[in-house]
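Mods, move this if it's the wrong board.
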Amino acid sequence: MKAKFWAAWGLVHAIIAVLALRGKTSEDVTYYYKGLHPWQYLHRDIYFKGGPAALQEYPDAGTWPLRIVDVLTPDDPAFFRVAFVATMALVSGLFTYLILQLSQHHPRPEGREHWPATFWLLFTCAAYPVILTRLDLVPGVLVAVAALWCATRPRVAAFLLGLATMSKLWPGVLAATFVGHWKSRGTWVRLIWFALSLVTLGLVTVVLSGPARLTSPLSYQDVRGLQIESLAATPFILAAALRPSTWQIEYAASKSYEISGPGVEVGIAIANALTVMVLLVAIGFAGWRFLKDDWSGAYVLRLSAVLIMLLIVGNKVLSPQYLIWLGPLVAVLLATHYTRAVWRVSVLLLVATFLTLLVYPATYTQLTEGPSPLAALILVARNVVLLGVAGAVGWLFFTDASRSPTTTPAP
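Not the wrong board. Structure tokens:
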């Protein structure tokens, strides 16, 4: 099984890499290179699209993998693209190895022994091309490993979550999952080490890039409009497909396609309110666990999945790579706490990710230049399934909380 699986893994990643590097889907990687070498593009689109502060939308720690790849390759965008894609494939390979190791030590129902690794391979296929051309795989894996190790390696887990937070911001809300009973030494170990990691990485950022880089990603988020793939934009995309002259889709300064027109400001307000609600939910669960003595590693995995899905469906911005935030965590859940509810989440997530492939790159031009009715309907279908994933994750959290994964019947 292992030899055949690794052969399939290698074939899948090779195909994804070749297709991603040959098409326009590698433009994100080229943008990374231009952001690291703006002096090579003084009169080209790096200044038009991003200005001299290109890559400022990313936290400084989030660009460290780019800098490492850049140091190890010649100053040529072609070499950089290949090296970056290879690096993301390496991250995927290391995570795959972890899933295989976990699967050997945790029982699953007959016929589901290989599902965790199979899920991850299928998810990798569905997440083409962004799984190898965007940085989101790194924080996604860091979050999954942090949730996995929070009970057994709390200091390492806290550092990994801190690194993920300083790389992409959104993982910071998951610190709420680290809160256990106030009398528990583990609670304070996790929280103190998480805080120390933030301070340490923040100081490194100040030394390397200056204090302004601590706040530039936050300033970038403030000016973002309603991104066309977000759930809040869905009714306006449908309406625009029927009456394109009423709503406009444009490439905005946020480096994403946003929709404007009647009612859009209401959509933005709703999305902002939902984002605040996610923070309140996280704080509420943290306060509850602070007084209740039944914290566990399984609770961290499940609540992390809930918070991530709330962030995805409630945000005014939604890009294909956001599903990579959840994929690694679901793979860990399948490998360590397999239940029917986890299986259901994994299947729905695969459906949502394959539909996302139809949104981008398959019909993205039709979506941004129309939208055409077909592209709009595909986007609606994807977003409806995402709501299904959110519901399944909520069901998982509330129904599996007191259930042993070894006694739950298989689907």
